[in-house]
């Protein structure tokens, strides 16, 4: 049972993300580098937020459970805000790098477009966020044990896996929408991304009642997916063309020369 | 920042590092230098913008393409080389972490110690522990410095046979003795029954093919695989036999030593590189990981003049340490990292010294060994990769020998200690309540 749970949860949590990585990112070294840099930025934001949380815990009353819980909630909110701040910081860094590169080369095109960078950096954030959330849980699921022996929820592993999947994909969509809204100077969209991230994190506060957290999260996921699709230039027409294999550009691009 | 003409002239005078058949320097510890290829005179030099902050090294390329395309090409090629280093470093770390997590032998503390860390740490007294770890570090670093100087002296006075023998001895030890130990422990862990004749056959074949691949010729992938395996074995030995606190202090001290040895004008590694360049010889061909087809002995001839300036010197020393018992002649592998030019293909290989692999893996392995937390391991892994990326970027900008350890190890250490002490309690509390950030 344990190995099955381990593999099942791993594939649920990381399957789509790894598939995205393998099919779209792994071939292009530049994208891999930006992915890892995105992961690094997320890591630094986590570090800062844990530092602040740690300090507040040290100066607080360690015995009061409600105070600790309150501090944890504060930590979560702070972490979300810092993550978005670092996403913005990463955007500024990439913008500067792109400008520098463009100034150097006389060409108009850059080796990697801003939209690809948005996708890749979002996925980088997502990978790191998902990994940090779930890897310890997965490694525990491999060993012997009983879930929920003290009356805790039985579905701990699988709900964690689904939540992680949602978070990874959400980070990717947030990245796309965020960068696009920064490019177009649409600050309301930026705010919407931050608020939706906050909402998703705060929904997890109800957590043993998974219907209260997972279902709204997946609704937000589908909304963000549609929004990101529109931001990336997709439309209903494109979708129809793609699905019925009538998209000439795509077909031509994949046409193998004889 | 434009590379000056004088630089170009001096590069013109030097010839490419050619892979000679006899491996030159054997062991000295660490020398992780990286340097960039300098362009050939057939290639036009392009000024590199010092304000560029894009990740990924910028290299120079053939000047047959127009400017913009050239920059784009260089960025792409630079990124490709970064990935060519990411993959083996990742593989080595994965091997080490997988072993640490499954085979308990390498995390058990034994009373045996390396002779290089003679002071035993007493877990009860913090002050004494700190003092002894500092003393251990001083002993270890002095051993390394002495070895490096001996190596440079030997190389300067052309005692190639001695160096050759030293190198062969150290790789023999790694390929036969350490892999035998490793295999034994793996079998014990998984309770696999094995008879001696089969074992002898396996180890014999593994060792002999390894010696051939590493010291002579062999398929590139096989050679790369062997180098990764021996780096992992060496890292595992360090993880097992270095005392806890000493290991961390040694990691820090070694990055500082690397910085000094490579960048200061009288640094032994720098002298080594320059001597090798004067003599037009490759350095440590046997203990360098190379990512492209390089072992062409006659490569000097036509491509020599082309590759004269277009030469990237990445230097690092590899270090192979001898066994646990108090043996006096420790063979230490020198690591060097430099890239040899490939004119035949546009793919210019990148080389990284094995010592870099070893110390990166030691850091990540220790992060995996202490505590059951995977977050720390992941954080160190990402930090080291980013450090490597930044180092390669600096390499592209400065185009001279640079040490590969300092930035990565610094990031790694910072992230290890902060993740272990700050992030771990935070993430544990979050996971306990199933809150997500």
From TrEMBL, chain A:
It is a multi-pass membrane protein. Keywords: Membrane, Notch signaling pathway, Transmembrane, Transmembrane helix. The chain crosses the membrane at residues 6-25, 32-56, 68-86, 117-138, 158-180, 187-206, 218-236. One of its GO terms (cellular component) is gamma-secretase complex. Pfam families: Aph-1 (PF06105). GO terms for biological process: Notch signaling pathway; protein processing. InterPro entries: Aph-1. It is found in: Membrane. Potential subunit of the gamma-secretase complex, an endoprotease complex that catalyzes the intramembrane cleavage of integral proteins such as Notch receptors. Component of the gamma-secretase complex. Belongs to the APH-1 family. This is Gamma-secretase subunit APH-1. It comes from Cirrhinus molitorella (mud carp).
TrEMBL record, chain B:
Residues 17-29 have a biased composition (Polar residues). It holds the Pfam family Presenilin. The keyword Membrane applies. It comes from the Eukaryota. Keywords: Endoplasmic reticulum, Golgi apparatus, Hydrolase, Membrane, Notch signaling pathway, Protease, Transmembrane, Transmembrane helix. It is found in: Endoplasmic reticulum membrane; Golgi apparatus membrane. Residues 1-10 have a biased composition (Acidic residues). Probable subunit of the gamma-secretase complex, an endoprotease complex that catalyzes the intramembrane cleavage of integral membrane proteins such as Notch receptors. The PAL motif is required for normal active site conformation. Belongs to the peptidase A22A family. This is Presenilin.
């Amino acid at each position: 049972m344990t190995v099955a749970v381990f593999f099942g949860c791993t594939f649920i949590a990381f399957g789509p993300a790894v598939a995205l990585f393998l099919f779209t990112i792994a071939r292009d070294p530049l994208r891999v580098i930006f992915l890892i840099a995105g992961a690094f930025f997320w890591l630094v934001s986590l570090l800062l937020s844990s530092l602040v949380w740690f300090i507040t815990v040290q100066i607080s009353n360690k015995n009061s459970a409600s105070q600790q819980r309150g501090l944890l909630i504060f930590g979560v909110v702070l972490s979300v805000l810092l993550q978005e701040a670092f996403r913005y910081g990463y955007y500024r860094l990439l913008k500067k790098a792109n400008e520098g590169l463009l100034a150097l080369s006389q060409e108009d095109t850059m080796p990697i477009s801003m939209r690809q960078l948005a996708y890749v950096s979002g996925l980088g954030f997502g990978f790191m966020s998902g990994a940090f959330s779930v890897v310890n849980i997965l490694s525990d699921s491999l060993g012997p044990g009983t879930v929920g022996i003290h009356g805790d929820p039985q579905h701990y592993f699988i709900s964690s896996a689904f939540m992680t999947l949602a978070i990874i994909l959400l980070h990717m969509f947030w990245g796309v929408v965020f960068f696009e809204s920064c490019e177009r100077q649409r600050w309301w969209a930026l705010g919407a991304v931050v608020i939706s991230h906050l909402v998703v994190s705060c929904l997890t506060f109800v957590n043993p009642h998974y219907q209260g957290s997972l279902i709204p999260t997946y609704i937000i996921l589908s909304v963000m997916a549609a929004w990101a699709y529109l931001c990336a230039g997709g439309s209903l027409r494109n979708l129809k063309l793609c699905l019925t294999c009538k998209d000439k550009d795509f077909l031509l691009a994949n046409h193998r020369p004889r | 920042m434009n590379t000056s003409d004088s630089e170009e002239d001096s590069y013109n005078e030097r010839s490419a590092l050619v892979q000679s058949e006899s491996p030159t320097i054997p062991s000295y510890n660490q020398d992780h230098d990286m340097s960039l290829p300098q362009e050939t005179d057939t290639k036009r030099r392009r000024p590199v913008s010092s304000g560029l902050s894009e990740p990924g090294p910028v290299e120079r390329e053939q000047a047959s393409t127009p400017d913009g395309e050239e920059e784009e090409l260089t960025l792409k090629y630079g990124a490709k080389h970064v990935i060519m280093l990411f993959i083996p470093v990742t593989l080595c770390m994965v091997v080490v972490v997988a072993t640490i997590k499954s085979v308990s032998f390498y995390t058990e503390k034994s009373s045996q110690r390396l002779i290089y860390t003679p002071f035993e740490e007493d877990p009860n007294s913090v002050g004494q522990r700190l003092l002894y770890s500092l003393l251990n570090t001083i002993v270890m670093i002095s051993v390394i410095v002495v070895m490096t100087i001996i190596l440079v002296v030997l190389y300067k006075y052309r005692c190639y046979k001695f160096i050759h023998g030293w190198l062969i001895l150290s790789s023999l030890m790694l390929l036969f003795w350490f892999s035998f130990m490793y295999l034994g422990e793996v079998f014990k862990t998984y309770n696999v029954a094995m008879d001696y004749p089969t074992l002898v056959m396996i180890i014999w074949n593994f060792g002999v093919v390894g010696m051939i691949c590493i010291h002579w010729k062999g398929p590139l992938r096989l050679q790369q695989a062997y180098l990764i395996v021996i780096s992992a074995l060496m890292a595992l030995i360090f993880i097992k036999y270095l005392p806890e606190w000493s290991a961390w202090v040694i990691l820090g001290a070694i990055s500082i030593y690397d910085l000094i040895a490579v960048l200061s004008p009288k640094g032994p590694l720098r002298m080594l590189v320059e001597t090798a360049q004067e003599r037009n010889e490759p350095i440590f061909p046997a203990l360098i990981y190379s990512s492209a087809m390089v072992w062409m002995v006659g490569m000097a001839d036509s491509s020599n003049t082309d590759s004269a300036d277009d030469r990237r010197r990445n230097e690092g020393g590899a270090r192979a340490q001898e066994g646990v018992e108090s043996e006096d002649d420790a063979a230490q592998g020198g690591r060097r990292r430099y890239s040899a030019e490939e004119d035949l293909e546009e793919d210019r290989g990148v080389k990284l010294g094995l010592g870099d692999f070893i110390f990166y893996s030691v850091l990540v392995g220790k992060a995996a060994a202490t505590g059951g937390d995977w977050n720390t391991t992941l954080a160190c892994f990402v930090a080291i990769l980013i450090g490597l990326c930044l180092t390669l970027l600096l390499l592209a900008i400065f185009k001279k020998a640079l040490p590969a350890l300092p930035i990565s190890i610094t990031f790694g250490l910072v992230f290890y200690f902060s993740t272990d002490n700050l992030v771990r309690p935070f993430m544990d509390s979050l996971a306990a309540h199933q809150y997500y950030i």
